[in-house]
TrEMBL record, chains A, B:
The lineage of its organism: Bacteria, Bacillati, Actinomycetota, Actinomycetes, Kitasatosporales. The keyword Transcription applies. InterPro entries: Homeodomain-like_sf (IPR009057), HTH-type_TetR-like_transc_reg (IPR050109), HTH_TetR (IPR001647), MT1864/Rv1816-like_C (IPR025996), Tet_transcr_reg_TetR-rel_C_sf (IPR036271). This is WHG domain-containing protein. Gene3D superfamilies: Homeodomain-like (1.10.10.60), Tetracycline Repressor, domain 2 (1.10.357.10). GO terms for molecular function: DNA-binding transcription factor activity; transcription cis-regulatory region binding. It comes from Streptomyces beijiangensis. It comes from the Bacteria. The keyword Transcription applies.
Length: 190, 190
DNA sequence: GCATTTGCCTAGGACCACTAGGCAAAGTTA
DNA sequence: TAACTTTGCCTAGTGGTCCTAGGCAAATGC
């Protein structure tokens, strides 16, 4: 019988696309196999198990979002950079909810696995942006955490319908960026 | 054969406790039934299905967290109230990760179900706190959203190990509260 | 053209959510 | 107390999920 031409990358990509459609946690190996016209057991020649697949999707999504963010802030600084970063991030989360959810999973790896040049670069983008605001350690790390928390929390609440007040969420979003900008400019140094 | 004395409330409570132990999304009806020394089919006399149970746990957790928050901010205002609110909320999320996760699920109810006095009161607590900062609509709603997003994002990132920088997360947390306070005091009015 | 590797298969186990129908314990009424 | 009703937990069974073991044929290397 003809082969389907599966590879870890093709499976990961299909899983990411399916996650964007139906939700990251609803992606099953069975459904994925059906999409390829293949039995679910066949996938195990290419991926270790479901957790492995999820980790791969998370890595893929992480690369994609980092590429976009790096491109968005390139050559910008201050509020310009912050706005570009924030809006690019939010667009990604809205256009690719499954991929975005994947980036939030707890990756079960030993600490050394986090020390790749790729992850290093991904972490560097927001740090560089905030350094341009004149922040230095430990304020820098605190501010990065505040930014990440605020963005992530906002996307999550938007995605799960947590904002049911009639006010437009995009208007609130723009005000949030304004607020964060003025906060970063007037950061209460320790 | 003797009866186990199950009720919807006892099942919900057990589910919430189990969620705190093993994680909200890992709670299964089978495991819950085993805990009661009962077959899983028996639970269906008391709850409709898994989604129903999750909704009940979410409601329970929501009541609990609101009680604590309301008690924490009672009689306080300004930074005092903000700090009490933030720390109480964070403590709850850390002590009861399963219950906290439950409060974040997308509740599938028609809009009218959201209009109970209980939910109204729960929403009112942060609004009242921010009104004391001199904010009024629409800034008020924007600020509430910013607070919720920041808190939720922070808890989530802390819980999933998103902060792997060596700096102590509690130190960053205290700085975050400082930063939010100064932001609220100097809110860029529209 | 033959041997090796590799990709997808069938078969099957364990766990899960959920339904249908049965029986006995608890509650109700006289 | 005795009969009737309600209700709580049961067994049995379906279909979905993840995952393993072992087989066979297609692709690859010599």
């Amino acid at each position: 019988m003809a082969r389907a031409g599966l590879t870890p990358d093709r499976i990961t990509l299909a899983a990411a696309d399916l996650a964007d459609e139906i939700g990251f946690d609803k992606v099953t190996l069975s459904a994925l196999a059906r999409g390829f016209g293949v039995k679910d057991a066949s996938l195990y020649s290419h991926i270790k198990n479901l957790a492995d697949l999820r980790t791969r999707v998370a890595a893929l999504a992480g690369r994609e979002v980092h590429e976009r963010l790096a491109a968005a802030v390139a050559g910008r600084a201050g509020k310009d950079a912050l706005t570009a970063f924030a809006n690019t991030y939010r667009d990604f989360a809205q256009e690719h909810p499954g991929r975005y959810a994947a980036t939030q999973i707890q990756i079960q790896l030993d600490a050394s696995a986090f020390d790749t040049p790729e992850i290093r670069r991904a972490i560097e983008t927001p740090y560089a942006m905030l350094r341009a605001y004149g922040l230095s350690e430990p304020d820098l790390t605190d501010a990065v955490r505040l930014l990440r928390a605020t963005f992530h929390g906002y996307f999550q609440l938007e995605a799960t319908g947590g904002f049911n007040h009639p006010r437009d969420t995009t208007a609130s979003w723009n005000r949030t960026i304004d607020a964060l900008h003025s906060l970063l400019e007037n950061w209460p140094h320790s």
